Amino acid sequence: MKLKQLSTKPIIRLSNILDMATVLFWVLFFIGFQSNAQELTLNNALTDKETSIIKIASYTAQGDLENLKVALHDGLDNKLTVNQIKEVLVHVYAYAGFPRSIRGLQTFLQVLDDRKEMGVIDERGVEATPIPDTGEKYMRGKQILETLIGRSLDGPKPEYQKFSPEMDRFLKEHLFADIFERDVLTYKQRELVTISVIASLGALEPMLTSHLNLSLNVGWQPVQLHYFITTIERTASPEQVKTAKDVLAKVLENVTD
Q1: Mean model confidence pLDDT for the chain
Q2: Mean pLDDT over residues 241-245, rounded?
Q3: Residue 94 neighbours by CB distance under 10 Å
Q4: What is the domain range of residue 178?
Q5: DSSP character string of 193-222
């Protein structure tokens, strides 16, 4: 009587299959989680260029020239062009005044000279396109502001504009027609400069509220505005940062209501 030869093939148990499936599930889950996390970071975080814009605008507004030098070097290293940074520094003057803006430009020239001595040649970038002198400037500025706020301005004017009609004209003709109408920087980038300056100066809550709302209108996401706050935590005073946080919280609360 012959004994039946035992099979040498491995026996795959159901429990082993389940264990393998569980491991595979968690591996795929982890890979998917990492991929989604990276995608969220890429889509919602501020870029290095945008972070540099915040720092440059914030330090310029405060007259912190030593830290501004570092931010300017970083901005150029992060591939902001010379003309983009120059446009940021020019834009600052509309909210912080000529003295701060001019000191920022002077500091930038020194940084460029220092980099040339080190053999670094920075990209100049596109020049600003001349603004065609067509149409009434007041109406051009009004249309740009309406685009930023997303509604018509044909209703009643704020009390300060009734009290000072010349201020209304200066805002429309100069701030929005002369400055916001320029290219090199987009509306989104200009709003980023604006909220960086206003938050860094402090005690300007109504204006910060207005421009945070404008920032949402031109495409900044709430999570990106939180990253904005995180950035100015490194450039502005604790008091200014707390105020900016509180204002942003109220703005976002009203948006979600």
Answers
A1: 88
A2: 98
A3: 20
A4: 135-182
A5: HHHHHHHHH-S-HHHHHHHHHHHHHTT--H
